Structure formats: C-alpha cells, structure tokens
C-alpha cells in the first residue's frame, strides 16, 4: 500500500469541557475512581456474564440514538464525536483490506468509548474477534447493548466474536503480551499524546500487524510546548506554518523511535489530520527488520527571513544554513526535530 497523507486545512483550538473532563483517565500511573476499583479486570468470562437487561438499566436518559454508515447505536454519556467518522472509516477500510489479504482479523480497540468503532470493525471489516476496552466502567451497558443488537457474542462453534473490558489500555496490552495473546490490528483512540501506549502496543501486535495511533496534542504540533513534544515524541517542535503536517510527522517520528528500541520497523500506511480536537491519526504497519536508514528521520528547518523550508539529516547538523544566506541558528532558523517521512525527501 502506498503511504498517503490526508489533511483538512482548518485548525480548531476548541476544546470542550467534555474533552477536559476525560483527560484524567489518560494517566495509567494515577488510578482514578473509575479504574482503581476494577476487580479482575481482564476476567472477561465473569464480566461478560452480566445480562443485557441489567446492563440496560444502567443506560442514562441522555443516551442518544445515532446512525453511522448504516449502523445504529447509542452513545450514552460516552465521549463520541460525529467528526471522527472519517477516522473510523479509514480504520475500517484498512482492517477490511488486511482481512482480505491475511484471512484473519483479531482487533483490540483499546479505548472504545461507546463501542461504535469496534462495532464497525465487527460488521463492516468482518473482524473475527474484537476486544473492546475502555477504562470507564460506566460505558459498559451502552457498549454491550450496542454490540448485542448487531453481532452474536459467540459463533455456533462456540468462538467468541467480542469481549468488553474496563481497564487501563497499557494494562490490557501488557496482560495480553504476557499471555501471548496477539492482535492483527490495535486501535488506540486516545486524548492528548499517545506515546505512552506505543511500547505495550508493539508487544502484543502480530508481526506485520497494524497499529492505529492518535494524537490530539495541538499545542505540541503548533510548536507551543517543545519540551512536551520532546518528552513525548523525541521531537523539539518549533512553530511552523504547516503545523498540521508537522503534527502527523511528530506522531510518526515518536512511533518510529519507540519501535526501533524494540527492534521493530514501522511504515506509515496513511496519515489523517482533522480540525476537530485537532486529531492526528496514523496507521502504521509493524514488522521486524533492520533499523530504518536515517534518510527518513531528521530535521525540518524553516527560515524566518525568506520562508524557505528544508530537511537535514543528523550528519548535516552544524552545516545548517538557508539558501538565502541566513546562517543564524536558532534565532533566524527554526529547526524542528521531526520525521521527514512523506515530505519531499
Ligand atoms: C476519544 S475517546 C474514544 C472514542 C471512541 N474510540 C470512538 O471512536 O467513538 C477516548 C476514550 O478513552 C478512554 N480512556 C482514557 N484513558 C484511557 C486509558 N488509559 N485506558 C483505557 N481507556 C482510556 C476514555 O474513557 C474515552 O472513552
């Protein structure tokens, strides 16, 4: 598959109160009231035995009926955005192609919200099995009822089609790795920076599997938090006129760096930027192999005098100047460590 890049042109800085209210769930090291009291969180056989009628009692009055690409579902109080439909479409298309070429498809939807993404993987990509997880236990009723209306829990031969759990995504993936339970596709639809999940995701992904990662960190892509982007992605991002593209490269660069540590090579299959959030999504193909050549991993410069952009490799550091003659580094030349993949190269 040829890598391609999809971007919307507008950048929105809006962040709803709903968005902020969920951020606390992101840090696995700080368990909160929702995650701390989870008992035997991965014991699906126990959790899934709860009857649909008792679960439906937990659905709130605010639950809304929605239809996405022909599938009906409810959102309850979960975090759901219509604007994310294209990101879900792309995930389903990639999954569907994967299933056609490999014949099997086991998916982990590590942060499933109301479960629409998982449901679409089951119905539209014909996934053999989907593990839907969300740290928020209160979404359980809505997720299970959405699934039960469309897909049987077990095939006639007794094979599970789906399970629903409520735990920190890193914990789920670490447990799967220990049990040698591997997935063909892992979708991590998180808030903020996603890099804390990269390593555990690689560990429980099959070779040649797909990893669908996310960033909603518009401050970092805009170059407003270089220390933060450095910590999360190893990229010291400065303000650039093409920050939406830089956001995608920053995410890919972080994923490439973490994969290299573990001896994996990743190839971006597609990248998608959307203004809401903003949301940066990248589908990566993960294989084992030699470390990638540095020609795709380096620096992007932007000249504040003439507006020219260039790329530089690590061994060109120290020789950086602009064609216009500007040799002032860094005051006149903004240098962002980020991945050059998909740029002019
Ligand atoms: C962007 S929403 C997911 C939306 C959903 N995938 C969709 O397509 O509609 C992110 C979800 O991640 C969950 N979450 C946040 N931190 C988590 C963590 N560390 N582990 C698992 N789930 C988490 C939140 O409860 C929230 O439902």
UniProtKB/TrEMBL annotation:
Pfam entry (one): TRM
SUPFAM superfamilies: S-adenosyl-L-methionine-dependent methyltransferases
InterPro entries hit by this protein: SAM-dependent_MTases_sf, Trm1
GO biological process: tRNA N2-guanine methylation
UniProt key word Methyltransferase: yes
Keywords from the named record: Methyltransferase, RNA-binding, S-adenosyl-L-methionine, Transferase, tRNA processing, tRNA-binding
Molecular-function annotations in GO: tRNA (guanine) methyltransferase activity; tRNA binding
Family (UniProt): Belongs to the class I-like SAM-binding methyltransferase superfamily. Trm1 family.
Protein name, entry field: tRNA (guanine(26)-N(2))-dimethyltransferase
Organism: Aquilegia coerulea
């Amino acid at each position: 598959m040829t890598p391609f890049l999809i971007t919307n042109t507008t950048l929105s800085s809006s962040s709803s109160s709903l968005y902020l209210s969920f951020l606390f769930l992101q840090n696995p090291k700080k368990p909160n009231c929702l995650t701390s009291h989870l008992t035997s969180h991965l014991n699906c056989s126990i959790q899934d035995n709860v009857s649909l009628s008792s679960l439906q009692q937990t659905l709130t009055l605010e639950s809304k009926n929605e239809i996405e690409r022909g599938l009906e579902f409810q959102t309850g109080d979960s975090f759901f955005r219509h604007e994310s439909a294209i990101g879900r479409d792309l995930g389903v298309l990639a999954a569907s192609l994967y299933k056609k070429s490999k014949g099997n498809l086991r998916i982990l939807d590590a942060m499933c919200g109301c479960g629409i993404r998982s449901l679409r993987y089951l119905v539209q990509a014909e996934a053999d099995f989907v593990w839907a997880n969300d740290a928020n236990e209160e979404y359980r009723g809505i997720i299970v009822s959405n699934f039960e209306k469309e897909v049987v829990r077990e095939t006639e031969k007794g094979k599970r089609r789906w399970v629903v759990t409520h735990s920190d995504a890193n914990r789920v993936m670490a447990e799967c790795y220990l049990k040698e339970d591997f997935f063909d596709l892992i979708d991590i639809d998180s808030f903020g920076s996603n890099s804390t999940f990269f390593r555990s995701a690689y560990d429980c992904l099959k070779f040649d599997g797909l990893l669908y990662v996310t960033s909603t960190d518009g401050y970092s892509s805009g170059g407003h938090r270089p220390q933060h982007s450095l910590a999360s992605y190893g990229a010291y991002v400065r303000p650039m006129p093409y920050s939406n593209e830089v956001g995608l490269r920053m995410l890919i660069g972080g994923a490439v760096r973490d994969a290299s540590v573990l001896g994996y090579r990743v190839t971006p299959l597609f990248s998608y930027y959307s203004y809401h959030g903003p949301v940066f999504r990248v589908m990566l193909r993960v294989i084992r192999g030699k470390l990638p050549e540095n020609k795709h991993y380096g620096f992007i410069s932007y000249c504040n005098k003439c507006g020219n952009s260039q790329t530089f490799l690590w061994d060109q550091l120290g020789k950086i100047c602009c064609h216009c003659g500007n040799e002032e580094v860094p005051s006149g030349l903004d240098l962002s460590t980020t991945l050059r993949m998909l740029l002019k190269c």
